[in-house]
UniProtKB/TrEMBL annotation, chains A, B:
PROSITE patterns: HTH_DEOR_1, HTH_DEOR_2
Endoplasmic reticulum among keywords: no
Keywords, in A-Z order: DNA-binding, Transcription, Transcription regulation
This protein's record includes keyword Coiled coil: no
Record domain HTH deoR-type: where: 3-58
Phylogenetic lineage: Bacteria, Bacillati, Bacillota, Bacilli, Bacillales
PANTHER family for this protein: HTH-TYPE TRANSCRIPTIONAL REGULATOR SRLR-RELATED (PTHR30363), TRANSCRIPTIONAL REGULATOR, DEOR FAMILY (PTHR30363:SF56)
Protein name, entry field: DeoR faimly transcriptional regulator
Any matching Pfam family: DeoRC
The species this protein was found in: Pontibacillus chungwhensis BH030062
Cross-referenced SUPFAM superfamilies: NagB/RpiA/CoA transferase-like, Winged helix' DNA-binding domain
Molecular function via GO: DNA binding; DNA-binding transcription factor activity
Top-level taxon: Bacteria
Amino acid sequence: MLTPTRHEIILEQLERYQTVKIQDLVNETGASESTIRRDLSQLENANKLKRVHGGASCLHQTSEELSIREKAAQNLNEKVAIAKEAASLIRDGDCIFLDAGTTTYQMIPYLKGRNLTVVTNGVTLLEELTENQVPTYLTGGFVKHKTRALIGRGATHSLQQYRFDKCFLGVNGVHPSHGYTTPDPEEALVKQTVLTLSQEAFVLGDASKLNELSFSSIASLQNATLITNENDPERLSPYQEKTNVKVVSS
Amino acid sequence: MLTPTRHEIILEQLERYQTVKIQDLVNETGASESTIRRDLSQLENANKLKRVHGGASCLHQTSEELSIREKAAQNLNEKVAIAKEAASLIRDGDCIFLDAGTTTYQMIPYLKGRNLTVVTNGVTLLEELTENQVPTYLTGGFVKHKTRALIGRGATHSLQQYRFDKCFLGVNGVHPSHGYTTPDPEEALVKQTVLTLSQEAFVLGDASKLNELSFSSIASLQNATLITNENDPERLSPYQEKTNVKVVSS
DNA sequence: TCAAAATCGATCAAAATATATCAAAAACAA
DNA sequence: TTGTTTTTGATATATTTTGATCGATTTTGA
């Protein structure tokens, strides 16, 4: 049996059972213990698994929540400043859409006690929203495991019931010629749908997102007002030429 | 059994019952008492649990979560027994609806690693479902503050996209002549909608729900199979006359 | 309160597993 | 083919994990 085949088997077993014993792999592959050990060492170096006494276990799985928290902590000050500005744009009685994401999440404290209705596709936003007693509707859809965002046909179908005064979207990339982009095509589709349903649209993109490009296109720049903390005039001007830009200081 | 597997089991049990006894873990894992003690020490150092005399208890419990968990702890053994029976009825490849509720919540551990698709209107079920890697769709709708259930037009509208092999519903009252009832008319409407979309329907109702009556009518008895832990023949017979009843021992 | 029962922590030897090394086997190139 | 390199399996020597034991401590129930 070839080495890549063995590696494939090991990773398959891991995928399936989370952990795998060396003895089981010996039986499964017919290779010797030494060989399996070498395989496991290699795969560990390649960061594909973690060796444990007696076998190996897969890397992620647990502490999924943590990674979301970690992500939320990146550029936190910038995100809060942008979120605060975004929240200040909301008028009494507005019905708004809040995108799943860490920047939009930071808007929630500023929504407390205000007269508005929120629709979101972000399950992670929900707890915070209900704690702040904001009347909330959730879109339906498939639960994306990594981000707990609701996507797919169910999400776009649910959205058709609503119309929004304003929507607030997070993105991964903002680019002068390629516009707003995000890695997941399904998420991009949801954002596109929201754009068509909103009177006004705002994209929340901190400076680290500017001039970045991601796989799936959402819309061109002029389809939304950009809220950012970038304040270098040179880096800003390509955007200001094509769309409304609100700059916050952080 | 590998160390990570044992740790996983310990944390699962904790998640489920809030506390766990060393003896139970010895039986569950087949490892010795010493080993379990060492595991608990390690997990305590990793800040994943708190050791107590005779076992361990879980740490985190946000205020909101607490009240939900308290409710979930009521009649826990009965609920687990009913949930286990309910889960055993699911066939490979089934697409099922899981109602929001504490009894249906207990079904989730039994769904792990199985080939099925779940649709639910219970936001509280979501975390557990994704942790158990069950592909999950959420209905849309208004988020009911107290229970985090999705209700209203958004929920019923979302549901129309789906068809279910089986649905598993929780109720507040089961009554020989008034059938299944629940306090919230909006929730009742969701349950009714689900019933019309399911090939087979099951209601999970522990003995405390029998002969109880609540404000909103969902359906008459014969519209669903009742799964209960009531085993007094006299109390059971009115139900057995009118519908299928599965009795579990708890 | 006290004594019995249960549980705990520390220790130790046995079992299982890990690492390093080396020669045989296989794959490869000329 | 022959010589070289890579992979493999075996072996010997560490290391880690494990389960049992025992005295100490805590809980339980009268």
